[in-house]
Amino acid sequence: MTPRYIGITSTIPVEIIYAAGAIPVDLNNVFITSEEPAQMITLAENAGFARNYCAWIKGMFGALQLRPEISEVIGVVQGDCANTGALLELLRHRGLTTYEFAYPSRGDSAGLSRSITCLESALGAAPGESEVWRIRLNETRRTALEIDRLTWQEDIFNGEENHLALINTSDFKGDPDSYFVELSTVLKASRTRTPLVSGVRLGLVGVPPITSDIFTRTAEMGAGVVYNEVQREFAMPHRSASLTEQYLGYTYPYGAGTRAPVIAREAAKRRVDGLIHYVQSFCYHQLDEIIIRETAGVPVLNLEADKPGPLDGRNRLRLEAFVETLKEGKQNNV
Fold it and tell me: What are the residue ranges spanned by the domains of the chain?
C-alpha cells in the first residue's frame, strides 16, 4: 500500500493523522532543516510569490514542490499565521486536498473538542483511536522533555540539541517508534558527558528562528540557550487526561497573554539571564514583545529576520551587545 502523507502548516493534534493511518510531515521542519532552504523560497517566488511575502509561507509552499508524495495538507486557520488560509486556497487551486483546523478562544474546551472531532471525521480516523495514539506518544514526548530538563538543570545538552529534540515532536519525523529510539540513544549517550560551561543563560522565545546559526553564535559569545519556548510546547510538557485537554494546554495558539506567564515562570525556574524574542519580519507577533517584555522579569532582546540563513551583521552586533550587557549584570551581582 502506498503511504499516505499529510503536510501540516503548524502543530495540530498529530495523533489524529496517525490514527487515520497516515504519516504527518511538518512542512516548517522540512523547510528550515533543509540544507538549501533558499531553494524553496526561490521555487515559491518563481511560482509568483512576492519577494516581500512571508518566508515561512514561501518555504512551506516550496517544500511541497519538492515533496510530490504529499497530496493533502492541514492548515491552522485560527491560532496561527493569518496567511495560512490564502496558502490553502492556492494549494486547492493546484489540486491538493486541504483541511482547516481551528484553535478556538483560550479555555473553549467544547470548541476545541469540535475541531478535533471534525478533523477526525475528515481524515477517517476511527473513534477513540486518537486517544490511543495520545497515550502511545507520551513516552516519546517524555523522553524529549528529559533532554530539555538535562539542558537547563544539569547543563548536559546545548541549546541546538535541545531545539532539535523538541521541535521534531511536532510530527515525530513521521515515525514515532524510530524517533523514540533516536532520542533514547541520545539520552543514554549523554550519561558520560561533562556538564557544559556558559556564562550567560538565555531563553529563546517566539517561533523557532529562521536564522541558521543563532545557537552557534550565542555559544561563541559565551552564552547558552537553556529554554526554547515554542519547541518545548510541541512536546506537550503539561499533564493531561484527554486530547482536548492536552491541546488546551498547548499555549502557542492562544496568544501572548497565555504564553507570557509560562515564559516568566520558566525563565525564573531555569535561572535565565535574558530572553531573545525572535519574530519574523512584518509578522503580527512583533506586538507580543510588549507583553513578554513587561512580564518576563528579565531583559528581552527583540530579534527580527526575514529569510533563512545566518544572522546578518546588524543582528550579530545587537546580539553581542545584549550578551555583553547581561555578562556585566551578572558580574555586578556577584
Answer: 5-129
Closest CA to 90 of 55, 68, 60: 60
- Give the C-alpha separation, 221 to 244, whole Å: 42
Distance CA(318)–CA(299), nearest Å, equals 13
What stretches of the chain adopt beta strand conformation (E)? Answer: 5-8, 23-26, 70-78, 97-102, 200-206, 223-228, 274-280, 300-305
- Answer whether 274's CB lies under 8 Å from 200's CB: yes
Report pLDDT digits (tens) over 110-134: 999 999 999 999 999 998 999 999 9
Query: Could you say which residues of the chain have pLDDT below 70?
Result: 284-285, 333-334
Distance CA 279, CA 205 (A): 9
Cell numbers that stand for 149 in this block: 530538563
Query: Rounded to whole angstroms, how far apart are CA atoms 38 and 289?
Result: 27
Cα angle for residues 164, 310, 312 (degrees, 5° grid): 140
**CA dist 22 → 4, 7, 10, 32, 261 (Å):** 5, 10, 17, 23, 36
Name the architecture of domain 5-129: 3-Layer(aba) Sandwich (3.40)
Q: Is 48 left (phi over 0), alpha (psi -120 to 50) or beta?
A: left
CB 157 within 8 Å of CB 190: yes
The set of cell numbers assigned to 23 is 504519516
C-beta separation of 130 from 19 below 8 A? yes
pLDDT tens string 47-92 = 999 998 989 999 999 999 999 999 999 999 998 888 999 999 999 9
Of 221, 198, 209, 230, the residue nearest 80 (C-alpha) = 230
CA 60 to CA 26: how far, in whole Å?
9
